[in-house]
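Hi support team,

I've been running sequence recovery on a batch of backbones for a student project. Most finish fine, but this one hangs at about 90% for roughly twenty minutes before it completes. I'm not sure whether the input is malformed or the queue is just slow. I've pasted the structure tokens below so you can try to reproduce it. Let me know if you need the job ID as well.

Thanks,
M.K.
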């Protein structure tokens, strides 16, 4: 075997592992790697404008393609700028490899120029991390890192490589096979647990499938299996924010999203169910509300590949540790083998239809101003003709409106920051998704405040001729912050008004984009159609009603039965205990 530099070994590893795209930003501590990448025919490097943008692009790429995202940044500030995206990927279970440069090994610990303890900093926000001090071990570390990032519960893995290790030489040959000595996620479910789950499901009178992002992470087959099991049992299906698209929104069995801004029918069904089958979700606080009032009379089955997520917040009656796809396959097989038929759930469905009749997603109409919900509904109508549509969002009211009013029929088409709630995620994620899906219509739904978090990435889209579309629901506020101030602090809007907003149309023109402004309801349909039909990147400044709030909602610390459907139900201010949960 010929000897190669550490930088060349890294690049060879990436090629052998099937990496096609790297999102990065060069700096002194990674110059050897960038030299190895120079004009490399097999790896496309996307130059970002900020390292946080690189991590979110890698997330968008990973979530829309099913392939791990790869990030390359320098030491010190390059690595620390990536920490938000690393944490976001950990919270939302996104497979990502973050390669960081480091000062030479002999300088580690001396406060050298652009030195930071990257391993220490990322220890608690990554699935695993490495500091590689020997070029001979670099190849095995890289292959192991990809294995860890993409198996079990996916997540980000950090590889910190000192500059002298990038320059030093060692032999490289790709491993013929790879198996980690101690990291062995349990992917197959216990057969007796599956049998018990199927019996519980067959006997249930008020069952609900509560699904999450784990269904999507398991792969497209898991979504198809979920649909088959739902059809076999006749049970209703709801989903977390992260699980949208795993079950088709057009299905009569779909209850919509549950949780803080979920539908009335989904939350009441969860509250009154006698059996909850949790599939690839983790009983997040935004879903459960007040724990002692969460689905108090139900038996609970929890299927998850992450053992630590089971019984972490909600005690369940039947835990099943397994890959969601494998567990669903086994449940379908057991259901058919035992000759089960869908139970008579007509009484249960009658109650659900009663809750549906409340039409909890209704919103007031206006001829004078654009309602933000209508803007999303129009985007949904207008984009149906596109061959393939991927929606990303920033974080805030617009994120919830998009989740409520855009109907997702397939997985990997909805990309949003759920666990960490990262403003600045959506736009770079859209760029990453467009890189991985060049023929898709990729639209980022944003707010006027959150779009500015990483707006510099407009330059990235321009450089690589990526036709991303950005629909800004501009209400001149940090909308969700303002809404909570209205609810909890008697409408004292402390620093939530977005003063001195830029002219987004002129900014679009400065970057070589097309800029569109929509100012009234009569312009909405034509403006969104123009956005979709215009070649190249487009930014739309859509001026929406400034004081619209996102309903329905469950106030922090409240039960599902305390759901608010409109502002008229809000009385007084919340308790200090509830404020602490906002």
């Amino acid at each position: 075997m010929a000897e190669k530099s550490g930088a060349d070994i890294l690049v060879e590893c990436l090629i052998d592992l099937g990496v096609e795209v790297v999102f990065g930003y060069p700096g002194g501590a990674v110059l050897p790697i960038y030299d190895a990448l120079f004009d490399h025919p097999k790896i496309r490097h996307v130059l970002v404008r900020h390292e946080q943008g690189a991590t979110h692009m890698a997330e968008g790429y990973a979530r829309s393609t099913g392939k791990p995202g790869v990030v390359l940044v320098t030491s010190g500030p390059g690595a620390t700028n990536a920490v938000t995206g690393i944490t976001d990927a950990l919270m939302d279970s996104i497979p990502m490899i973050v390669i960081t440069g480091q000062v030479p090994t002999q300088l580690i610990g001396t406060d050298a120029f652009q030195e930071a303890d990257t391993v220490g900093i990322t220890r608690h926000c990554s699935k695993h991390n490495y500091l590689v001090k020997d070029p001979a071990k670099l190849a095995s570390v890289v292959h192991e890192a990809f294995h860890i990032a993409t198996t079990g519960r996916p997540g980000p893995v950090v590889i910190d490589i000192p500059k002298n290790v990038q320059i030093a030489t060692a032999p490289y040959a790709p491993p013929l096979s790879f198996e980690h000595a101690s990291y062995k996620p349990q992917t197959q479910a216990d057969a007796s647990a599956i049998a018990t789950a199927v019996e519980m499901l067959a006997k249930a009178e008020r069952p609900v499938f509560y699904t999450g992002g784990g269904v999507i992470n398991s792969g497209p087959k898991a979504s198809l299996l979920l649909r088959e099991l739902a059809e076999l049992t006749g049970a209703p299906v709801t989903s977390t924010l992260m699980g949208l698209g795993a079950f088709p929104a057009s299905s009569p069995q779909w209850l919509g999203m549950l949780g803080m801004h979920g539908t009335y029918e989904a939350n009441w069904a969860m509250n009154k169910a006698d059996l909850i089958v949790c599939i690839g979700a983790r009983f997040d606080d935004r879903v459960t509300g007040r724990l002692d009032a969460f689905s108090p009379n139900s038996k609970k089955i929890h299927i998850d590949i992450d053992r630590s997520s089971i019984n972490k917040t909600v005690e369940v009656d039947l835990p099943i540790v397994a890959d969601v796809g494998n567990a669903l396959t086994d449940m379908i097989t057991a259901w058919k083998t035992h000759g089960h038929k869908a139970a008579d759930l007509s009484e249960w469905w009658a109650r659900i239809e009663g809750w549906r009749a409340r039409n909890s997603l209704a919103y007031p109409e206006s001829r004078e101003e654009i309602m933000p919900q209508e803007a999303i509904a129009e985007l949904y109508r207008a984009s149906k003709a596109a061959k393939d549509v991927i929606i990303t969002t920033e974080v805030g009211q617009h994120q919830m409106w998009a989740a409520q009013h855009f109907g997702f029929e397939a997985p990997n088409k909805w990309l949003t920051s759920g666990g960490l709630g990262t403003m600045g995620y959506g736009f770079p994620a859209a760029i990453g998704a467009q890189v991985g899906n060049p023929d898709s219509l990729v639209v980022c739904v944003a707010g006027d405040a959150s779009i500015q978090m990483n707006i510099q990435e407009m330059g990235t889209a321009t450089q690589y001729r990526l036709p991303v579309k950005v629909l800004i629901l501009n209400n001149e506020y940090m909308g969700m912050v303002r809404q909570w101030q209205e609810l909890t602090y008697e409408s004292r809007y402390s620093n939530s008004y977005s003063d001195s907003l830029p002219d987004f149309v002129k900014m679009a023109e400065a970057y070589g984009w097309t800029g569109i402004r929509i100012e009234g309801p009569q312009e909405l349909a034509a403006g969104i159609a123009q956005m979709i039909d215009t070649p190249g990147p487009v930014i739309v400044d859509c001026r929406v009603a400034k004081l619209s709030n996102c309903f329905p909602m469950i106030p922090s610390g409240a039960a599902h039965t305390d759901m608010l459907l409109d502002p008229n139900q809000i009385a007084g201010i919340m308790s200090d205990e509830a404020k602490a949960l906002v």
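--
Follow-up from support: It reproduced on our side and the slowdown came from queue contention, not your input. The chain has three domains: 3-171, 191-356, 372-550. No action needed from you.
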